[in-house]
Amino acid sequence: MFEVIGERINTSRKLVQEAVANRNAEYIIEDVRQQQTAGAAFIDVNAGARIGHEEDDMRWLLDTIQPMVDVPLSLDSPDPAILEMAFAMVDKTPVINSISLEKDRFDAMMPFLTGKECKVIALCMDDAGMPESAEDIFKRGKLLINELNKIDIPTPNIYVDPLVQPISTDSNKGTMVLEAVRQIKKEFPDVHITGGLSNISYGLPQRHIINRTFVTLMMDAGMDSAIIDPLDKKIMASIQTADMLLGHDQFCMEYLKGVRAGTIES
Ligand code: THG
After folding, report:
1. Which residues have any ligand 1 atom within 6 Å of their CB?
2. What is the pLDDT of residues 123-155, one digit of tens each?
3. What are 132-141's contacts with CB under 8 Å, separation 24+?
4. What residue's CA is closest to ligand 1, atom 9?
5. 3-235 has which fold?
6. Domain positions in the chain
7. Of 46, 58, 164, 251, which has the fewest CB atoms closer than 10 Å, so is most exposed?
8. For the segment 183-202, what is each residue's pLDDT rounded down to a tens digit?
């Protein structure tokens, strides 16, 4: 089944930033509880937005969340020192979000990941910037999988993030990533594909309809995870329905459960 990485615990969100600044544990705990109830398979934790406070904020967030959370966490930082501290604080195998092919980041992350039992999100970014073609995405994804395999991170523990870009700037940005995901899944059937989706709709009105239509197309191409807001009922219903239509829901059990629970309606 599709794995939702709940994106809400991120200090770039105004209310979360306030709660973190005020050390309001209740707010954070309630938010995580709601994301779990809504079906998040992982809870992403990103403390990057308060400059100079990332380490303290991340430690406080994990102190707050770790005792109550039932699902593993996605530790979202570019800084291996912060990830090292965070990794030591969790008790379920986390997702490390993320590594990329940008030289400084790659060189800092590889020693951190070596010998760790974890899952890893691998961004198809390098020093040349965002990918410009399906081939770019494929090559970068393949390189990341091969390098992570070399340090004994098995392919099923790797989540490739192809990096979705705004369709408002170039009408081919949708098909570019869809094609790349198909290629990656053909060569590496056991790898996961994840990522944020909302970049696709940047610069356009009524963004949610674009995001939730795009996720169903991405699922047909092989996306099996995404970093989204699990409290967005419409995108969650689209994902659950698409999972059924793609044959991932034996006897339509999960779909029927969703209808009975009131989370899926026409
Ligand atoms: N790939 C990977 N990790 C990621 C991203 C990605 N981590 C961060 C980000 N992208 C995904 N997380 C969020 C979290 C919150 C929001 C968006 C993405 C969010 N944004 C509101 C908005 O844009 O309107 C902010 C509004 C507010 O202040 O509340 O909520 O792509 N691997």
Report:
1. 7, 10, 12-14, 46, 76, 97-98, 121, 123, 161, 195-196, 198, 227
2. 999 999 999 999 999 999 999 999 999 999 999
3. 133/176, 134/175, 134/176, 134/177, 134/179, 134/180, 134/183, 135/180, 136/180, 137/162, 137/163, 137/176, 137/177, 137/180, 137/181, 137/184, 138/180, 138/183, 138/184, 140/101, 141/180, 141/184, 141/188, 141/191
4. 196
5. TIM Barrel (3.20.20)
6. 3-235, 236-266
7. 251
8. 999 999 999 999 999 999 99
